């Protein structure tokens, strides 16, 4: 009985990621958007006639790419792009500690919605509020309509709302560090999922899915193969179930031997 309890405790500790892992994967996605925005801005300034529309519709185009990317990784790897890059997966609380790869439909949809919609709305809101502040600073105060009063109230309330959200996020991270909470982010709590490390069974499931994939006539096979190779890139498992970092190219070489 004691051995069984010790085994369950060891499994829970091994599956639980550290705070450094979860913060690192969040930093990865936070760095992608500004880098891509700067690249698009440089292209638009160098050739406005060809790339100007990319800069004007950057938020919408980025959201579309984000939806496609996150949906692929949630469907095939049960994690977002950045979570899978660091060898993590999303697990529904209903599945327990022994859950392998795979999210239920409701958890996957909630995760996808929160992954792409919250950053998009935040970016659009910050741009709109910045423009509203500039208009208030350089315009003459006249009789205001209902919409203008609403925007003024939103501008005044946004710093408090943003501070409250950051405080909630910080408290959630503290609870995660001390083991009180199983999620480090309010978004994961709203999606009713938690993060766990990939295990050997998950790796076998991924390789089995890749080996069962038939090569179609068009070029979609190349895209799927590239994404699948990226899904488990970054982690490898020895016989003692300890993690070892590997490169994407090393994993792709392993997978290519099966074809």
TrEMBL record:
Q: How does it sit in the membrane?
A: Multi-pass membrane protein
What the entry lists under Pfam families is as follows: Pex2_Pex12 (PF04757)
> Which compartment or compartments is the protein found in?
Peroxisome membrane
Q: In which pathway does it act?
A: Protein modification; protein ubiquitination
Q: Which UniProt keywords apply?
A: Membrane, Metal-binding, Peroxisome, Protein transport, Transmembrane, Transmembrane helix, Transport, Zinc, Zinc-finger
Q: Origin, by domain of life?
A: Eukaryota
* Residue ranges of domain Pex N-terminal in the record: 25-209
Family membership noted in the UniProt record: Belongs to the pex2/pex10/pex12 family.
Explain the purpose of this protein.
Component of a retrotranslocation channel required for peroxisome organization by mediating export of the PEX5 receptor from peroxisomes to the cytosol, thereby promoting PEX5 recycling. The retrotranslocation channel is composed of PEX2, PEX10 and PEX12; each subunit contributing transmembrane segments that coassemble into an open channel that specifically allows the passage of PEX5 through the peroxisomal membrane. PEX12 also regulates PEX5 recycling by activating the E3 ubiquitin-protein ligase activity of PEX10.
> Could you tell me what this protein is called?
Pex N-terminal domain-containing protein
Q: Which organism is it from?
A: Ataeniobius toweri
